[in-house]
Design brief:
Elements lengths: L1 H26 L7 H15 L12 H20 L2 H15 L7 H26 L2
Length: 133
């Protein structure tokens, strides 16, 4: 019985975070938001909406670390930087936007692909040097 309520609470929390993420998406376009709050919001939203994670989900434990810790912490920090009345306005707008599906940020996804390719190249170069030296 207690597990069901904990799961329900977790699902509600995840739903709230998703709603807040859409509110942040709208807030970084809002002229009433300070430049530093916009900067943090852009980073959080770009990372969360990226179709590719910095740490892929197939890596045990670490793969879900960004979804479970990094994104919620980024959302919480950004919500503290933006005035509450702006967030509330954008939450209402976010409910409408969310029904249309989340936007994709292919720029950040491409950036992550480049990072992984460079990392693979670097590791390959190290192994090649070790094997043939």
């Amino acid at each position: 019985m207690e597990e069901a309520t904990a799961l329900t609470k977790l699902k509600n929390y995840a739903r709230k975070l998703k709603r807040d993420l859409f509110a942040l998406y709208l807030s970084y376009k809002d002229d009433r938001v300070s430049w530093y709050a916009k900067l943090v919001a852009i980073c959080v939203v770009a990372y969360a909406f990226s179709p590719i994670d910095l740490i892929p989900d197939f890596i045990p434990i670490l793969g879900y670390l960004d979804d479970l810790i990094i994104v919620p912490l980024g959302i919480s920090l950004t919500l503290k930087l933006i005035p509450a009345h702006i967030i509330e306005e954008n939450r209402l707008k976010a409910d409408e936007l969310r029904q249309n599906g989340k936007p994709k940020n292919w720029f950040v996804g491409t950036l992550f692909i480049i990072i992984w390719i460079l990392l693979a190249y670097w590791v390959g170069k190290i192994f090649y040097g070790v094997m043939y030296s």
